[in-house]
Design goal:
This protein is α/β, with parallel strands linked by helices. It folds into two domains: about 120 residues, Rossmann fold (3-Layer(aba) Sandwich), CATH 3.40.50.720; about 230 residues, Dihydrodipicolinate Reductase, domain 2 (2-Layer Sandwich), CATH 3.30.360.10. The protein has 15 helices and 15 strands. The strands form two sheets. Strands 14-13-12-11-7-10-9-8-15 form a nine-stranded mixed beta sheet. The protein has a six-stranded parallel beta sheet with strand order 3-2-1-4-5-6, with helices on both faces. A hairpin with a 4-residue loop joins β9 and β10. The longest helix has 19 residues. The two termini are about 40 Å apart. About 45% of the residues are buried. Bound molecules: nicotinamide-adenine-dinucleotide. Nicotinamide-adenine-dinucleotide binds next to loops. The site of nicotinamide-adenine-dinucleotide has 16 residues, from loops.
Length: about 425
């Protein structure tokens, strides 16, 4: 479906994180926010009632019947692929929040559906669109640090016990059982975006569940503390990717090339970068180290005003442009799956003595056949024959009374989930 000249009509699935996309869509030229779906009716109407012409739905299939061009999926992170497939089959373009897939088989079905329908699928990984990562991409493309040799990406997000319950307010909420390696695209996305390489091999390592951390032991969490992925990229470079709830909240990215290095600053502001060149590699008069806060090279004012580090603004622009032109964005279904599936394979690697896995490109029909029936998952509702433990320690046992206290606190902290 091409939409040249007309506003792109967007519906949003999920009234949590989805509110941010909806606000962005409602404010942006060339895009219209027309519908929203969430089973939490009160939360849905509380938000949507500030817009006069937005239709609300509690049922996803009814929502998909709405007259609109595209849907943004901000429902449960582990249910995106089935929702994307249903939306594509209903003739809607899709932008999907992270993670793209819960199982390898879902990835195969998703890519086949995108190819069958010819519609736009965009993976909504927003971290590459921050000012610092866009600046790194700009410098990399100009050849400033030469060819990519080694990179690191980190996304560390610790929370206290009450925040943990607030973010995952039901016992089997996805944030309580998703393995620590799965939420990997905030750390891998920037490395791939800057260097335009993709992972071809992955090994996974896991810092286990910490029984001394109240946000884990005294909540419904059955996850591990952190995941570390060692990846070989398709140009021969290596990337170390880390994510989890270690005790220092930040995102970070570093890229070494054969002519220099750049990284986001760990201290003094994550919106700054450092560019380094050895004395013999730099041009005369050029400093060895440059530290600065880059502006967005396009749409600076709009992106800063939009909040969320500009990420949501740029993703929506790219999505709408892709729909108008029919040209898939960089974060198309293949890129999205390549950056997401390493989290699934890394967990399996960690459960199997850190075994190396080949990472599929999702572009090769023979590769797809290898994974098309791979339904292994850590979802508590997965069939027994496909169920894997969410922790390297196995199924996490809870002390007596934890469940009862969780049920009480969750209702107190998030009454909007229990109305
Ligand atoms: N990129 C980022 O910076 C960022 C930040 C936060 C969240 N996220 C992602 O956004 C997504 C949503 O995050 P969240 O924190 O809002 O999650 P959440 O689990 O708190 O909320 C999901 C919402 O979807 C609704 N929902 C789920 N299944 C439904 C169904 N079948 N029918 C109707 N409603 C349904 C739930 O009622 C809930 O309101 C996740 O994929 C998460 O990974 C990304």
């Amino acid at each position: 479906m091409s939409n040249s000249g007309k506003a792109v009509r967007i519906g949003v699935f999920g009234a949590g994180r989805g509110r941010s996309f909806a606000t962005q869509a409602a404010a942006m030229d060339g895009v219209e926010f027309v519908a929203m779906c969430d089973q939490r009716e009160q939360a849905l109407t509380d938000f949507a009632s500030q817009y006069s012409d937005v239709t609300t739905y509690t049922d996803y299939d009814k929502f998909l019947e709405h007259d609109m061009d595209a849907v943004v999926l901000a429902n449960y992170a582990t249910e995106h692929a089935p929702a994307a497939i249903r939306a594509l089959r209903a003739g809607k373009h899709v932008q999907s929040e992270s993670i793209a897939i819960k199982t390898m088989a879902e990835g195969v079905e998703l890519v086949r559906t995108v190819e069958d329908t010819g519609l736009i699928y965009m993976y909504a990984e927003n971290y590459p669109y921050s000012n610092v990562i866009q600046e790194m991409r700009y410098l990399y493309e100009k050849g400033e640090i030469g060819e990519f040799k080694y990179g690191e990406g980190e996304y560390v997000h610790p929370v206290d016990k009450r925040t943990k319950i607030s973010l995952s307010p039901t016992w089997d909420h996805w944030r309580n059982w998703i393995p620590s390696t799965y939420y990997c695209t905030h750390s891998m996305g920037p490395v791939m975006y800057v260097t335009r390489t993709r992972p071809v091999k992955v090994n996974g390592f896991i810092v286990p569940h910490d029984y001394d951390n109240p946000a884990m032991a005294e909540t419904a969490s059955r996850r591990d503390t952190a995941g570390i992925l060692m990846c070989q990229m398709d140009n021969g470079a290596y990337a170390k990717i880390m994510m989890g709830s270690l005790k220092c909240h930040y995102t970070w990215c570093r890229i070494y090339g054969n002519k220099g290095e750049f990284e986001t600053l760990r201290h003094g502001g994550g919106n700054m970068i450092k560019v380094h060149k050895e004395p013999w590699d730099k041009k005369p008069g050029e400093p060895s180290d440059m530290i600065y806060a880059p502006e967005f090279r396009q749409f600076h004012e709009e992106a800063v005003r939009a909040g969320h580090g500009g990420g949501d603004f740029f993703m929506l622009i790219e999505f709408a442009n892709a729909i108008r032109t029919g040209e898939p964005p960089y974060l198309d279904v293949y890129t999205g799956l390549q950056m997401s599936c390493i989290g699934i394979l890394a967990h399996r690697s960690a459960l199997n003595n850190n075994q190396t896995f080949d990472v599929p490109s999702f572009k090769d029909a023979e590769e797809l056949k290898i994974w098309e029936n791979d339904h292994y998952s850590c979802d508590p509702s997965a069939p027994e024959e496909y169920r894997l433990p969410p922790s390297v320690l196995g199924e996490i046992e809870k002390a007596p009374g934890v469940r009862e206290e969780f049920d009480k606190l969750a209702r107190e902290i998030r009454p909007d989930w229990y109305d």
